[in-house]
Amino acid sequence: MTHLDATTLLRGAGLRVTEPRRAVLTALDGMPHASADGIHARVVETLPDVSLQTVYNVLRDLTGRGLTRCIEPGDHPARYELRVGDNHHHVVCTHCGAIADVDCVVGQAPCLTPGEDHGFVVAEAEVTFWGLCRDCQTADAPLAAVAAQD
Ligand SMILES: [Zn+2]
Ligand SMILES: [Zn+2]
Asked: Would you say residue 76 lies in a domain?
């Protein structure tokens, strides 16, 4: 993956460049669909004083400015990614919460049109496909397999 220029991204979005913001963007560059916990774990490797709450605040600011996208897959914790603005969708494992990107279902955004638009001009469709990921399909006893990975 090309090295992300966090400073340029932040400036372009009109956000002040801070070390936690740069660190969160850099962490997300290497792990798409990370949770706030996962991002925090990565950030403290270089900035040990950054709290989880700071990471949440940074993610809120970045998402508010369109630099990151927040996905909230059902009961699983929210995930964040840098791939924004392309109306892509997600497939989520109902068992372990693994997420993968799925390109537009049909053509360009919105790739699905509602049967009734209720007078809205529809710009995007966000679709979540649910299923079992490859690991969870092959596990004989899925719960035991997940526990064994820790
Ligand atoms: Zn799974
Ligand atoms: Zn995605």
From this structure: no
Ligand positioned closest to the Cα atom of 130: 1
Q: Find the ligand nearest to 142 CA.
A: 1
- Locate 147 and state its tokens: 């526990």
User: What's residue 148's pLDDT?
Assistant: 47
Segments forming the whole domain that contains residue 137: 86-149
Tokens standing for residue 142: 């899925």
Interval 68-99: pLDDT, tens? 999 988 888 999 999 988 878 999 999 999 99
Question: Please, which residues have CB less than 5 A from ligand 2, an ion?
Answer: 81, 101
Q: What is the pTM of this model?
A: 0.79
Expressed in angstroms and rounded, the spacing between residue 38 Cα and the centre of ligand 1 is 17
Please state, in angstroms and rounded to a whole number, the distance separating the CA atoms of residues 61 and 122. Answer: 25
pLDDT confidence of residue 149: 47
> How far is residue 52's CA from residue 49's CA, in Å, rounded to a whole number?
10
Inside any domain, residue 23: yes
Residue 127 lies in a domain: yes
* Residue 67 lies inside a defined structural domain of this protein: yes
